Amino acid sequence: MDSFSKKLRECREAKSLSQKDLVGILNTSVIGKYERDEIIPSIEVAKNIAKILGTTVGYLLGKTEEVNIFKDPTVLNRFNNIEKLNPENKKHLLSIVDGFIQVLKFKNIAAL
C-alpha cells in the first residue's frame, strides 16, 4: 500500500489543491514535510486533512483502498451500532444484509 505522503498528495491533487492551498486551509506550514515523509501528522491533523480532502484517515494511512468508505455518517453510525451487538445477533444481521445484497446483484444482472 502507498504511504501517507503518497495518499495525501494523490487526494490533494484530486481536489485540485496546491500545497499552498492546503497550508492556508489547515493553517499550518508543514504540508510539504508530510508529503516528503519527513514528519507524520497528529491524529487530529490527519482527521482534518481527511475531511478537507473528502476521504478517510484509514485511506490516508493505507489501511483501506476505498477513498470514501464510511464517509456517510449515517452508514458509519449503523455499522458502529452493528459492531456493538452480541456476536449471535451480529451474525444474523450480517447474514440478512449479505442476502439482500445478493438479491440486488441478481436483479441488476437480470435487468441487463
Q: The biggest beta sheet, please?
A: none
Measured as a percent range, the helix fraction is: 55-70%
Low-confidence stretches: none
Strand percentage lies at under 5%
Secondary structural class: mainly alpha
Count, helices: 7
Distance between the termini: 35 Å
Mean pLDDT: 86
Radius of gyration: 18 Å
Number of E-type strands: 0
- Coarse shape: elongated
Give the helices and strands as they follow along the chain: HHHHHHH
Describe the overall structure.
With 112 residues, the chain is mostly helical. The chain is 67% helix and 0% strand. The chain has seven helices and no strands. The chain is elongated and about 50 Å long.
Q: What's the structural blueprint in terms of helices and strands?
A:
Elements: H1 4-14, H2 19-26, H3 31-35, H4 43-53, H5 57-60, H6 73-83, H7 87-111
